[in-house]
Write a structure and sequence with these properties.
By secondary structure, the chain is mainly alpha-helical. The chain has twelve helices and five strands. It has a three-stranded antiparallel sheet with strand order 2-1-5. It has a two-stranded antiparallel sheet with strand order 3-4. Bound molecules: benzoyl coenzyme A. Benzoyl coenzyme A binds next to helix 2, helix 5 and helix 9.
């Protein structure tokens, strides 16, 4: 079904055919807009931004581009097309018809997962609330806002499910999604990373590279769900998510490129000299990577999880790209986990978080390889690397363990002494923040980042992507 933009809430779910649901969502809509005004991009309500908007849900040509004031963005409800006669692809209900309603006994499991997913979306917008003021270019400013409006739409996707399938509980949860706030002492966001401040653009690029990639994996797992409306919502969200990770990968790549240009110009890799020249040295990039990668690893939950086992068994949440596996039931299969006490063999169903985390880590490696190719081509020996997934963990078997970035358990005193070498220090953060000065002339770039290879939608890099009225 195509998207109907003549409706107050654009949708392809025939909202007009369910007046009660439509009214409930129209009641939530102004609260969302109030939240956006207060917690969304600060001070840019009148700016005209070159944004893409969904006009369909098929892979070809789903987007239209044009100048939009963000508060006028048409947030709506879009589900990917239904797969006829879809069956559940994993767990104890393998091969049964997918559910069009939530089975009563799985209600609280589904609600918890949809709420957790929904909570991250506005959280990320809140984290990025002030970044527009320090954009390195109009091109980057536009990308930030594109990410923000789409995270807003992803919130709509989860709120639709809560309203449409969870009755009064769902409506209450939808209100709570606007009441919790990132970093709030009394009502924080649910998951750890979404309470971390994102105060500079290097953090933003790391966040969109590492944390949005958790989004990719979680959405892929939910796109396998036996609850068909959830699966279809997530399939469409994934098409939007790809751009966010592109922003992260190219953003970090451009920071690296600029550092290499300055290193060449100065004929040194001395971080102090590179900093004095207004670029970000590669060891600092590594420390930011260490921070955001390890924080994002925690988003997969514990290695051994009865929640994960229960979700898999029931058909609530599968593995990303479930079709790549031969055994979709995993009733007797086991998994060898590396714990601080050695290898532990556990039921595979209980290790599903770890299975997902392992695929995620592999995916994270791809961008790091590309950044290292740039460094290698420039003739330098330094290489960026992902720290061991045991390093600086806050969840699971390795939580709080004194482990170095290579994954070795070390003496607690040594860990405490050296942790400052591995993570951004206050001085690093202050330095990076000092570079964050707004550059808002079309085609101009801040001195700490190289220009992108190309513009958006075949437009030149110099295009005025945001008109700051
Ligand atoms: N911080 O059994 P456990 C995205 C909680 S990102 C705080 O180990 P489980 C996006 C957990 O909730 C994707 N708490 O793990 C990216 C549980 O609490 P309850 C977001 C944590 O349940 C960028 C307890 O610890 N989507 O879309 O198997 C921008 C024991 O948990 C953390 C999802 O996450 C943590 N890091 O799995 C915008 C998908 N980790 O319930 C958007 C939905 C765990 O006992 N969520 N806990 O009170 C899920 O599938 C699961 O909730 C989790 C945890 C994977 C998060």
């Amino acid at each position: 079904m195509s998207i109907d933009y003549s409706e107050r809430i654009p949708n392809n779910v025939n909202l007009a055919g369910d007046r009660t649901l439509q009214r409930a969502l129209e009641h939530w809509q102004p609260k969302f807009l109030d939240w956006w005004k207060e917690m969304g991009p600060h001070d840019f309500a009148s700016a005209e931004v070159y944004l893409r908007t969904a006009i369909g849900v098929d892979a070809q040509g789903w987007a239209s581009y044009g100048a939009v004031k963000m508060p006028d963005y048409r947030w709506g409800i879009f589900l990917a097309d239904a797969i006829p006669d879809r069956t559940i692809g994993f767990g104890d209900n393998y091969g049964q018809p997918a559910w069009q309603q939530v089975p009563g006994e799985l209600r609280s499991q589904f609600r918890r997962i949809i709420v957790t997913q929904g909570d991250t979306e506005p959280a990320s917008v809140e984290q990025q609330h002030l970044l527009g003021h320090t954009c390195p270019s109009l091109y980057d400013l536009r990308n930030l806002f594109q990410v923000n409006v789409e995270e807003g739409r992803h919130l709509w996707a989860m709120v639709y499910l809560l309203h449409a399938y969870f009755g009064r509980d769902g409506r209450e949860e939808a209100e709570e999604l606007l009441a919790r706030h990132s970093g709030d002492a009394d009502k924080p966001r649910i998951l750890s990373t979404f309470n971390e401040p994102v105060q500079d653009w290097l953090s933003f690029f790391m966040f969109t590279y590492f944390t949005d990639r958790d989004g990719k994996y979680q959405l892929k797992a939910l796109a396998e769900s036996g609850f068909d409306p959830l699966a279809r919502s997530c399939r469409f969200m994934l098409t939007e998510e790809a751009h966010h990770m592109f922003v992260g990968e190219t953003g970090v790549g451009r920071v690296v490129k600029r550092a290499l240009e300055v290193m060449k110009e100065l004929g040194t890799d001395d971080p102090a000299a590179i900093r004095a020249h207004g670029a970000i040295d590669l060891p600092t990039v590594q420390r930011y990577m260490n921070f955001w990668f390890t924080s994002s690893l925690d988003l997969f939950g514990s290695e051994v999880s009865s929640n994960a086992a229960g979700s898999f068994a029931a058909g609530v949440k599968g593995r990303p790209d479930e079709s790549q596996y031969e055994d979709h039931v995993c009733r007797d299969a086991t998994y060898d986990l590396e714990t601080p006490n050695g290898i532990e063999t556990v039921a595979l169903r209980n290790a599903m978080n770890e299975v997902m985390r392992t695929s995620y880590v592999k995916d994270c490696e791809i961008g790091v390889k590309r950044w290292n190719m740039q460094i290698q081509r420039a003739g330098h020996d330094l290489r960026l690397s992902l720290p061991s997934p045991r390093f600086r963990r806050g969840m699971g078997a390795w939580a709080g363990m004194p482990v170095d970035p290579l994954g070795r358990i070390i003496d607690r005193a040594e860990y405490d002494r050296r942790i400052g070498e591995w993570l951004p220090s206050e001085a690093d953060r202050a330095f990076v923040r000092s570079l964050m000065q707004r550059v808002a002339e079309p085609g101009k770039m801040a001195g700490w980042i190289a220009p992108p290879d190309r513009g958006i939608n075949n437009l030149p890099v110099e295009y005025e992507y945001v008109r700051l009225n």
